[in-house]
Design a protein that fits this description.
- The complex is a heterodimer.
- Chain A is mostly helical.
- Helix content of chain A is 59%, strand content 0%.
- In chain A, helix 1 packs across helix 3 and helix 1 crosses helix 5.
- The model of chain A has no long low-confidence stretch (mean pLDDT 87).
- By secondary structure, chain B is α/β, with parallel strands linked by helices.
- Chain B is elongated and about 75 Å long.
- Chain B starts with a strand and ends with a strand.
- Chain B folds into two domains: 130 residues, HAD superfamily/HAD-like (Rossmann fold, 3-Layer(aba) Sandwich), CATH 3.40.50.1000; 208 residues, 3-Layer(aba) Sandwich (Aminopeptidase), CATH 3.40.630.30.
- In chain B, helix 10 packs across helix 11.
- The longest helix of chain B has 17 residues.
- Chain B has an eight-stranded mixed β-sheet with strand order 11-12-10-9-8-7-6-13, sandwiched between helices. A five-stranded parallel β-sheet of chain B has the order 3-2-1-4-5.
- The chains are: A mainly alpha, B alpha/beta.
- At the A-B interface, helix 3, helix 4 and helix 5 of A face helix 13 and strand 11 of B.
Amino acid sequence: MTGQPDVTGQLRRILAELTDDSAPLEAPLDTALLRDGIGLDSLRGAALLARVHSQFGVDVAGEDLNLDAMATIGTLAAFIAHRVAVRAPGG
Amino acid sequence: MIKCVIWDLDDTLLTGVYLESPGRRPPANPELAGLLADLAGRGILQAIASRNPPEAAEHAERVTGHAFAATECGWEAKSAAITSIMTDLGLAADEVAFVDDDALERAEVSFSLPDVLVLAPRDVADAASWPAFSPPVVTDEARRRGELYAQRRARQDEARAFGGSRDEFLRYCEQRLTIAPASRPDLPRLHELSVRTHQFSSTGEAVGEAAFASLLESADHRVITARLSDRFGDDGLVGCCVIATSAPAAEGAAARAWEIQALMMSCRAMGRGVIDALLAWICRAAREGGADQARLPCVINPRNVPLRIALTGAGFRVEDQPTRVPAPRGVQGGRPPGPAPRGVQGGRPPGLARYVRRLDQALPELPGWVSA
């Protein structure tokens, strides 16, 4: 789990950039990404997953058909951190 | 298929350098302005990427008489300007052509965006005769496409200045979405929509006019259109779904389902709540029609992620595969949330997911701006 705070921080910065708002930098981990939470629409949601793919090499849309990982900031960070850890050499 | 031509200004679309002639700004290059108008008439969008202040784009609009779909003026790399335009208009690199007189600029774009078609001004006339620039059907929507995107720019400018929520902005825009059965005059546009739509397409492939025509005649199918307008303009037919109304909900089950065999929405309607409204309408109409489930087979590809996010938001879930070989006990627990069902054994085409929405649960609200 040592990598996760870093993943969360990077994810927050991506969200702040995509929404042009600093709120995601401070929002609680259980803040929803879509609708009432961060308020991403489907297009910006897709842009988020594209950024996650290029920045972390994790293809959330390809691996998680129901996109459950996209529920909150925390679930997405955990999904990415898990995939990154599984891929790490020796881990 | 090229959907957008992005033009440089200095010594390309303009006969001279904008900033070097402050007294008398350069006129449009008549040959290229003529080609631009020809391409726009085929439904191909026109945009500007120029190393100039934003006033240069306004000047280009005046001298060409064309309202551009997107303009990027500034001093960043041309590849960055093109990327911004692609994001803004929802385009992939292989749907874009870039015209610039400067060989260095062309090389930079070719290197950074290898899928973009890069042309020197002298090559545009020839390229305009290539199949990639010749859509097979040019619908009324296509002829008005440039104008519709110019309206979209005006709407986005106002949205940025608007203080309230998205819903409040849609109300302020007096947005209307009209959902109605398709009829024969819609056939060319329905086909065109199926060809052009990738980000909000459940089938990922074109549907021919003849196929749509047969579906219109079928007693077991409903072909539904969605038309969008607001105070900025009339976008026309932006969405479509094909519904089979008599599918059994599941093998051996008594329940009835509506199967959405195709769902598509134009990129132009992105960000205006249309796909969510259309999904809400489908769920509600299916329940009123006596169905217990709405089902939607959807291709899984990198481009239709926006549609899949909208499906999840409307309560659709990828169905468990009853015919799949059961995983050995204990495997499931160690996985992160929602692993992709790989190696499906049920004879399903690869990359196709079956989404199901149960209709006995609370359904998404139909916004007040929808009339059906």
